[in-house]
Amino acid sequence: MSGLRDRLNRLRGTPEPAAPRSEPPAPTQTERPALPAGFGAIGVGLEENEAGPFLLRRIAYPLPYHHGKHELGELLARAGSLLPIAERQNGSSGPIDPYRLLFLDTETTGLGVGAGNVPFMVGFGYYAASAFIVEQALIRHPGEERAMLTYLLDRMKDKTHIVSYNGRTFDWPVLANRFILNGWRKSGQSPGHLDFLHPSRALWRKTLPSCRLGTVEEARLGVRREDDVPGSLAPTLYFQFLSDGHPEHLHGVYAHNEKDILTLASLAVHFGRLLDGEGDEEAILESEELFRTAAWLEQHGLTEVAERLFERLAEREEAGEAGWSLPLAARYKKAGRFERALPLWRKFAETAEGAAAPAVEAHIELAMHYEHRDKQLLTALTYAERALELAVRRGILARDKVKRDAERAALQHRIARLRDKVSRERK
Amino acid sequence: MNPYTQKAESVDEWLELLRSKRELMDNVTFWHTEPAKPARTAELPVTVHPKLAGALGSKGITQLYTHQAASFREVSAGRHVVTVTPTASGKTLCYNLPVVQRLLEDDSARALYLFPTKALAQDQVAELQELANLMEADIKTHTYDGDTPPTVRQAIRNAGHIVVTNPDMLHSAILPHHTKWVKLFENIKYIVIDELHAYRGVFGSHVANVIRRLKRICRFYGSDPQFLCASATIRNPREHAERLIGETVSLVDDNGAPTGEKHMVFYNPPVVNKQLGIRRSSVLESQKLAALLLKSGIQTIVFARSRVRVEILLTYLQETVKHELGSKTIRGYRGGYLPKLRREIERGLRSGEIRGVVSTNALELGIDIGQLQACVLNGYPGTIASTWQQSGRAGRRQTSSVTFLVASSNPLDQYLIQNPDYFLGRPPEEARIHPDNLLILLDHLKCAAYELPFEEGDTFGGEKLTDLLEFLAEEKVLHKVGTRWYWMEQAFPAHNISLRSAAQENFVIIDQTEGHRVIGEVDRFSAPTLIHEEAIYLHEGVQYQVEKLDYPEKKAYVREVNVDYFTDASMAVELKVLHVDLEATTGALHRQFGEVTVMAKPTIFKKIRLRTHENIGSGPIHLPEEILHTSGYWFSFSEEESAKRSANDMQMALLGLANVLIHLAPLHLMCDPLDIRVVPQVKATHTKQPTIYFYDRYPGGIGLSQRLYEKHGELLEEAERLIRGCGCLSGCPACVGPIEEVGLLGKELAMSLLQGMKA
Q1: What predicted TM-score, i.e. pTM, was given to this entire model?
Q2: C-alpha span between B695 and B662 (Å, rounded)
Q3: ipTM score assigned to the predicted complex
């Protein structure tokens, strides 16, 4: 052994250790007696099934419990409203029954969804008769994985959807790997997903510094965490536990995971309210977010609520200047409501005239409108010519030369056609 | 010869013309004609599926060549097979036939194809798809590599019958994510490995470990695939295949494909200074022959040893024939050209639009460029196997072809050109790999543990697995529970491990003559000598000067220039022995094998005038030192022996001997001449004696030095033969080196040293 060590060290160029290392006490796997006190202190106990032992912590939250501004129990009445999200994410979906949702969040030893990334803690939450239950399964070493997965499968049996944050592309595929590695093959239907990362991005991508769960909960759900251990530290803490066996390393990870599960429930209430048309829209201060909320509601079939929000937007002071003006105008154009679209375009075009790198889309829209609908060819021509001037001005900064040239060619074509029409009209 | 166009009707006619040219024929030292060979065929086996037989029939294939039939028979018998045949002998059918047959019989079956490069993979998919279309069979063949769009990846994973990929992709994308490939791994029947000879040295050692991982995963999913391998001619195809895949393999080497007449012409540039043993430049002579061929309308490939040579030859040739052909019809081809440009050149060669190509060994592999008529080798390619393979680029089934070997003045070239029997009589070299190189093995052990836990009693290569796993557990990479070792680290190990030495660390070359444009890349090892600041970098025949080398960011900024010189850099090397594993004494000579540390630092570069090749200036290179821990072999001379001569004489003798040995060593090893290095030291730190060191240029070593240690006696005998046989007076570039380097007595001193140690 020492010969091999010497060879390896020499090849690496690292100095040979002066003294033999002390062997770390490996957590033994067959010990049945009492768990270290550090586990009991936070309510972790030993659980066992036909595949062996693992650790489980179980906390029941009374339904009136507030996590941030929302009450956990509120979801019982609102879960059904999440159906449009489920349909959008899964293609189709049966009705949403709050008692058949599994809120899921895993802590893993690495990043990515490769075969070697091990979920060492699987936290999940579900609604029971009079409480919201959070359960956290932990493996003391990889040998206990099978027992933990067996337990998870059992908990999933009567559930229709997994509620998660990025679980569709991370937590679930990682778990699916583990099932395959343990020799299970997919049988029956995979669970549906309610992955709240997607709606969160749709609503807050532009207005929050990030769409990480911690940012979202603090900014929009009123959740404040004290002394939170960041999720990125979880693997390191687990490795420390593996090497010295002290459960205290994991206390922070337990707390973090538990809060994540509660936030999932709170987020579910939040989206449920929005989809019920009872979201607190007045609290949405930024127009960008208001626009995104309206568009999101519209996508999920809530046209009336969406319409109300769009109307409010169109009346706002900065309408016509901001990034959302063009999509809003496009929406009105599609609906044939030019009395709404035109002022937005005009305002946008006006702003563009003064910009260093002007966008010409509004000019083009106006040129099209005056050429084809209003039949004011001269106005159309003026807008088209201005658009070309602006495009040339912006062209100096443009990166994509192909796109730039195509845009210019299209404008030149439009101008030529309009001039032709104007001169024919004059004759 | 057409008197108006100066075009030759055929290679035969052109060769007649050559024979009439005294000034060229004087330099031809040897002319070997390999007669045309008729086809030897066998009936299509009756077991071949009617659809497959029909499709082959519509391509005009009603019979098989003997090697194709033999390979089908061996595969049907359930054996692992390696097929060895030259270029253009229909070898793909050797594996496609059994694979397609199986897929027709069983729709759930799967096959995995491995090619060393993406370009080869694409060629293969096109061929298989054509076959599937002809059969009107639903056989889905897909490439799966870095260029595969994410949107279709899932479909390929679930439904692709044949997945065509490369070892790098298998290593970093497929194996670590094997749980997404359940369909493939549960049903995999065949693994095809083409261009087997390319997997040698460091790369081959890595690939052997990737295959160990692949087999481990197949076992996990309950499958036990057959390996169908194909290789160019090497001496030990069966042994190489067996080492690479770790299984017993049957060899099929009875080539039944027809070939036209082949001429192999050895050409030694004339001596221009008899006393100094200086010959005319092989570059200029190669250019002359190639120009003569091209002007006569003969499609020609020119192989050169280095990228710089390729560019120099390309410049000369484009210049010479621009009036007859236009410079766009003569192209360069080498690593460092971007893929799009390479595909364009390959297409041009197939269509015949491109009449000539100057290439490094990049075109040695089976990339489809059709068959050319003539081949000019500028310098001996380093191995007999490579020589045949490069020469195989010229040669059609029906008509004659010619290959010129233009010798350079280095000792190996001169040795070969003067001993043609050595070349023709000797079987091609062995391909060697060293999959149990400790560092390589350890790297793949990590990847393997990431993929599946290890169980006590598992095997993986030759080292004692338990020791290695314990080591990784102590390093806190693995975690042992009971009898199992589990991966327990945040990292994704495959990302930090590249199968090709330093391949992931390419330097990009940015031309800032006009804006910023990436024109090529250079690997890390070559960077210090090719793109140091002030170096002249040649790309597609255009000269660029390196203005700034951003070493940490791996970028070289160049600007187009027009100068009449190129640059050549030197390295200073320091060497330290860490550990001695083997030793032996014979006569006055003590030899050892063990671990060494090498510190290399580029020092200066020389400016060398084009065409005359005179030294016209130099400058310093400021770059960090590279440190390498590897294995080495060295021999030193006894006190008595060194006492016989002055330190200066000893220096010259050692240098002369080292010059000879470094050229002979790759011959024995079938390795790239750059993989093994030599350093002579008059008073070595380790032995305190005059010593010559050899070392493997790869961390941990890849078995090259060890092999030389074993073949020590043979190596020295050959060195003696070479020096004795050289016609020069007192040393020349073809033996111990020019007298400017080894002094007037260099040859004599080296000779006496060799003889002294036998005493």
Answers
A1: 0.81
A2: 11
A3: 0.82
